[in-house]
Design brief:
1 helix; DUF4164; DUF4164 family protein
Length: 106
């Protein structure tokens, strides 16, 4: 049956020691649980911050892609204008040379 007397008399120090040990284990377990919860909260905060940063980077990437597209359009327009100007300058230079050459032959 039981090692403890049924009437409650006898050695009460052993059950108190058991209760103290159980209390210490419980407190240790609660401390570990609290630490674990705090680490999880920090991990969640870090994860939320990372998600926010990723979202901001995505928005920046989109904005930069739009700016790049606009710059490419402007560059192509400038290149086209540059070619047209170069052609007109070549034609003007040709005309000037022709005029100068015809003046020398007179």
């Amino acid at each position: 049956m039981s090692d403890r007397p049924a009437n409650g008399s006898g050695n009460t120090e052993a059950p108190l020691a058991d209760i103290d040990a159980a209390t210490k284990r419980l407190m240790s377990a609660l401390d570990a649980l609290e630490s674990s919860v705090e680490r999880r909260r920090e991990a969640d905060r870090d994860e939320n911050e990372l998600a926010s940063r990723i979202q901001a980077l995505g928005a920046d990437r989109s904005r930069l892609a739009d700016e790049l597209d606009g710059s490419l359009v402007k560059t192509r327009k400038l290149e086209r204008a540059n070619r047209e100007i170069a052609e007109k300058l070549d034609a003007a230079i040709g005309t000037i040379r022709a005029v100068l050459e015809s003046g020398e032959t007179r």
